């Protein structure tokens, strides 16, 4: 199994070859143009000093400005940060947003830090990277594990270091400091609107569309409840141990009432099926939300679905993608399905650039329009190029970047 970085580079190379671009372009964008590694001290509550390691990677600035998340995790690596910056470029280009990709983070375990230690960590990280970020350079935004308070501390520290510059370009802030409401569910909203756009674009009957969800974590639970409220039939859902399936649709609120502290509901519900049997059930849209299992060609041959939506990069392996394309299954990759956070960050940045505050309706309308347009473009490209939507999504993301590079005369 390839790593996420290797999978991403494989897809980039494959797409650029398919589109007929020279290898020089791949060599230019296969890695970030800048990766900065920093080490900085943080005073702990017991008055000791601990040294933390952080990163900031910028894929390219062909569009002038880069934007990307900040990650605080104990297992984050330089390679992962580099891959995430490239992935951000592909995703932004898929959405037709004029932004390059970036990513950053600090190796730390948030559970081991006090409130004040976390504040000093955030400020120390900004002091270490402040000269390579800014409103016309690189825009930090929040990851799912990074809350608005963390971004507010970063904004404040930047304002202390650059007293003549408005620090509100940093996104993911609290609403009172220029943030956008409901940012904490941005990724889930993006997946939901992707599924809704598929139903609309392919003219599926809303009330009769059968959706099956592999995984009942944050994304899986959110989508199941939203689709149930919409009237879509959620016919199957799995937890880490087993799964449940009902061709007439599940009562999702009742299912989730059975969840224990470990997210397991199949211990209480009697009519369950194995995870192997889960793949064989009939459905229209299959949503993949777990990191633990990769869908290989053997699993792909069991599937009885017309659409697959991937929410974790590299869930579908290449042999499975090739087989499913032969079966004319429409596949929406993670680079197209999980872009809600990028859209929210872009809209918050646009508020900063325009000096205005969007209404809730304007945010919602812009959000839906950007997601729906991306699905339309991917469908059009897949039909025009006679490729699956999985490849078409990467084609759009890569072509927009390399055409910008070509017009600017970098190669």
Automatic annotation (TrEMBL):
It holds the Pfam family ELFV_dehydrog. It comes from the Bacteria. The keyword Ubl conjugation does not apply. GO terms for molecular function: oxidoreductase activity. Keywords: Oxidoreductase. Residues 190-409 form the Glutamate/phenylalanine/leucine/valine/L-tryptophan dehydrogenase C-terminal domain. InterPro entries: Aminoacid_DH-like_N_sf, Glu/Leu/Phe/Val/Trp_DH, Glu/Leu/Phe/Val/Trp_DH_C, Glu/Leu/Phe/Val/Trp_DH_dimer, Glu_DH, NAD(P)-bd_dom_sf. Belongs to the Glu/Leu/Phe/Val dehydrogenases family. This is Glutamate dehydrogenase. It comes from Gracilibacillus xinjiangensis.
């Amino acid at each position: 199994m390839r790593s996420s970085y290797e999978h991403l580079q494989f897809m980039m190379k494959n797409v650029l070859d398919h589109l007929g671009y020279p290898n020089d372009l791949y060599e230019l964008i296969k890695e970030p143009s800048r990766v900065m590694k920093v080490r900085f001290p943080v005073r702990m509550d017991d008055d000791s000093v601990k040294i933390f390691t952080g990163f900031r990677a910028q894929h390219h600035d062909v569009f002038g400005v880069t934007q990307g998340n900040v990650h605080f995790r104990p297992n984050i690596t330089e390679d992962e940060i580099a891959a995430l910056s490239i992935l951000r470029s592909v995703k932004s280009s898929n959405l037709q947003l004029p932004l390059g990709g970036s990513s950053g983070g600090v190796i730390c375990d948030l559970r081991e830090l006090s409130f004040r230690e976390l504040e000093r960590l955030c400020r120390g990280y900004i002091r270490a990277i402040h000269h390579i970020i800014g409103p016309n350079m690189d825009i930090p935004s929040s990851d799912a594990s990074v809350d608005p308070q963390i971004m507010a501390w970063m904004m404040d520290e930047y304002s202390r270091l650059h007293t003549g510059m408005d620090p509100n370009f940093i996104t993911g802030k609290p609403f009172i400091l220029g943030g956008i409401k409901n940012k904490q569910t941005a990724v889930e909203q993006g997946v939901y609107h992707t599924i809704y756009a598929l139903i609309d674009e392919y003219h599926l009957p809303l009330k009769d569309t059968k959706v099956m969800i592999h995984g009942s974590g944050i994304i899986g639970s959110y989508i199941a409840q939203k689709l149930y409220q919409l009237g879509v039939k959620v016919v199957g859902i799995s937890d880490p141990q087993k799964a449940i399936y009902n061709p007439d649709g599940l009562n999702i609120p009742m299912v989730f009432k059975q969840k224990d502290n470990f997210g397991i509901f199949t211990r209480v519900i009697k009519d369950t099926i194995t995870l192997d049997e889960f793949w064989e059930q009939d459905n229209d849209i299959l949503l993949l939300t777990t990191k633990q299992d990769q869908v290989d060609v053997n699993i792909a041959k069991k599937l009885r679905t017309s659409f697959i939506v991937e929410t974790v990069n590299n869930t579908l392996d290449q042999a499975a993608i090739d087989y499913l394309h032969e079966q004319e299954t429409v596949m929406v990759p993670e680079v197209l399905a999980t872009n809600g956070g990028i859209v929210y960050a872009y809209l918050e940045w646009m508020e900063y650039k325009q000096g205005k505050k969007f209404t809730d309706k304007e945010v919602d309308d812009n959000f839906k329009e950007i997601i729906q347009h991306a699905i339309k473009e991917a469908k059009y490209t897949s039909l025009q190029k006679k490729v699956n939507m999985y490849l078409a999504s990467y084609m759009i993301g890569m072509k927009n970047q390399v055409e910008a590079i070509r017009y600017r005369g970098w190669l």
